[in-house]
Amino acid sequence: MPLIIAVLGILLLFLLIAKFKLNAFISFIIVCLFVGIFQGMELGNLVQSIQRGIGNTLGFLVLILGLGAMLGKLVADSGAAQQITTQLVAKFGVKHVQWAMVVTGFIVGIPMFYSVGFVILIPLVFTVAFSTGLPLLYVGLPMLTSLSVTHGYLPPHPAPTAIAAMFNADIGKTLMYGLIVAVPAIIVAGPLFARTLKKIEAKPLKEFYNAEPIPEEELPSTAVSILTALSPIIFIGVGIAAEQFLEEGTLRNILAFIGNPVIALLISVLIAIYSLGLAKGKEMSTIMDSLSASVSSITMILLIIAGAGALKEVLIDSQVSDYIADSLKGSSISPLVLAWLIATAIRVSVGSATVAGLTAAGIVLPLASGTGTSPELMVLAIGSGSLMLSHVNDTGFWMFKEYFNLSVKETLSSWTVMETLVGIMGLLGVLAINSII
């Protein structure tokens, strides 16, 4: 019965979001009540479980996502993203322009939410394609692959960070494994796959192509742009290295503290306020207004993640998760593959990668501790599955279609295949790392 209730709860979530277009946060809370009541939870305990799930989830993530949004906004508004793209294309040359776009998408994608990075970089893709005479998808798809992979695999992005928190996975180790898995996934789904799409003639919509770039003299330098955008990764990497290679002592503790994701992002935002704001002559009040706008833009993302955290807590407190874990313990399927399959199924049904990842995490949470599987690899397996088979119920699908002026069929044969390649390569990378460690 607990398994049936869980399945019905997930189906209800699908219906509320996909069929009735109800807000995802409200849908999660309704499903929490459905699962808890039919599992026989006392009503007072059910409400407390929902509150506890929301509190435990947001307690860590508000800091990460808030600071990440601020850094992304500063990188975008200052023209740092534009500078990174311009200089990398100049350095790589026309022959290797795909790799310039891959690196651009990766650098900009680390601190920036997918939709924001998409909108910021698309005019630059159009400009590069026009100036080089290369096909639009040949230039643009590698960059979007990088953005997608950083969104699905790597902290400090919402879903992987939230899932890591659920599994008590080490953020630094998740990031390290994620980078290893990300590189081959990007290469296969980006530059290599894009070379097979020469028959699809994408055309930029006029209103997007005419987006005015920031004048060159107002842009921050290339070094400042890249170092500021990558500063969270640099600080987190320093912390990982300190914990791995330094003996216990004051220096190790200080460097590990700096490498904590929250502290790394805080320091990065402070650096960006100066390097991309004050140093360029901007008023502090203007910079702060920009930061306020960045946080307001992620409010709904936070609520959706909070709702998923509440569902996770209800599944645990009502003992549904324990029942599912016990049922699956005898299964011959690897927990990593199982997590990937569940995330894939939810992604196909709901469309949202974030909702798919968080919901799948709540379902398979007990498997990590029950089977001894690496929690960091479980995060990456779920993240990979959550990117699979993007189609008409995914907002990313429609953004790609409209910006590149494609038909639905052309979008399915380009965007959907790219996302699926990313998901498959992610699983293969996770299984490869698991066989080594």
Largest sheet descriptor: none
Structural class: mainly alpha
Number of helices: 21
| Quaternary assembly | single chain
**What portion of residues is helical?**
over 70%
Query: What fraction of the residues are assigned to beta strands by DSSP?
Result: under 5%
End-to-end distance, in Å? 37 Å
Instruction: Tell me the number of strands.
Output: 0
> What is the general shape?
globular
Compute the gyration radius: what is it?
A: 22 Å
Order of helices and strands: HHHHHHHHHHHHHHHHHHHHH
Low-confidence stretches: none
Mean pLDDT, to the nearest integer, reads 85
Characterise the protein shown here.
InterPro entries: Glcn_transporter. Belongs to the GntP permease family. GO terms for molecular function: gluconate transmembrane transporter activity. Keywords: Cell membrane, Membrane, Transmembrane, Transmembrane helix, Transport. It is found in: Cell membrane. This protein is mainly alpha-helical. The protein is built from 21 helices and no strands. The chain has helices spanning 2-19, 24-38, 43-77, 80-92, 97-109, 114-132, 136-153, 158-166, 171-194, 206-209, 222-245, 250-259, 261-275, 284-296, 299-317, 320-328, 335-350, 353-371, 375-385, 395-403, 408-436. Helix 3 packs antiparallel against helix 15 and helix 17 (335-350) runs antiparallel to helix 18. The chain is globular, with a radius of gyration of 22 Å. It starts with a helix and ends with a helix. The mean pLDDT is 85.
